[in-house]
């Protein structure tokens, strides 16, 4: 499978999960996928494959400076591994937010933007969720 095909497949795998978490967070299938971390585990396995591929192609990775990281992300397998890293960890954060919300009870209309921004911009969605969580905890 080419890296381009895997990029498309990885994106295709995560999109339905985000939609389930936004629109049907309490549905049995959604809960199963969250509880057993099926998609992040699959992405982790894919990540390991491509990170090893990248190291086989270019040796050990250098994260010691911005320039070396920029150079690293000119290699196809490293970029794909990095992208899958984002997909997996953003999804895990979204799943964690859903789990947190079981006790918080934040309305779906407020959770939806948190999840959307976590999917699209990672830390922005997390920050929004944390802000809402803090306000909700302080207000009651």
TrEMBL record:
<keyword id="KW-0472">Membrane</keyword>
<feature type="transmembrane region" description="Helical">
    <location>
        <begin position="78"/>
        <end position="98"/>
    </location>
</feature>
<feature type="transmembrane region" description="Helical">
    <location>
        <begin position="110"/>
        <end position="132"/>
    </location>
</feature>
<protein>
    <recommendedName>
        <fullName>DUF4281 domain-containing protein</fullName>
    </recommendedName>
</protein>
<feature type="transmembrane region" description="Helical">
    <location>
        <begin position="36"/>
        <end position="56"/>
    </location>
</feature>
<dbReference type="InterPro" id="IPR025461">
    <property type="entry name" value="ABA4-like"/>
</dbReference>
<feature type="transmembrane region" description="Helical">
    <location>
        <begin position="6"/>
        <end position="24"/>
    </location>
</feature>
<keyword id="KW-0812">Transmembrane</keyword>
<keyword id="KW-1133">Transmembrane helix</keyword>
<dbReference type="Pfam" id="PF14108">
    <property type="entry name" value="ABA4-like"/>
</dbReference>
């Amino acid at each position: 499978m080419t890296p381009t095909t895997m990029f498309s497949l990885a994106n295709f795998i995560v999109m339905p999960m985000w939609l389930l978490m936004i629109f049907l967070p309490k549905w049995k299938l959604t809960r199963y996928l969250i509880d057993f971390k099926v998609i992040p585990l699959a992405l982790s396995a894919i990540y390991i494959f491509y990170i090893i591929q990248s190291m086989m192609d270019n040796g050990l990775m250098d994260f010691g400076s911005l320039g070396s990281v920029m150079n690293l992300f000119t290699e196809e397998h490293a970029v794909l591994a990095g992208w899958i890293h984002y997909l997996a960890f953003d999804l895990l954060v979204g799943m964690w937010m859903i789990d947190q919300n079981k006790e918080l009870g934040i309305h779906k209309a407020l959770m939806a933007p948190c999840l959307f921004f976590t999917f699209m911009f990672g830390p922005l969605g997390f920050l929004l969720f944390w802000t809402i969580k803090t306000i909700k905890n302080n207000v009651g």
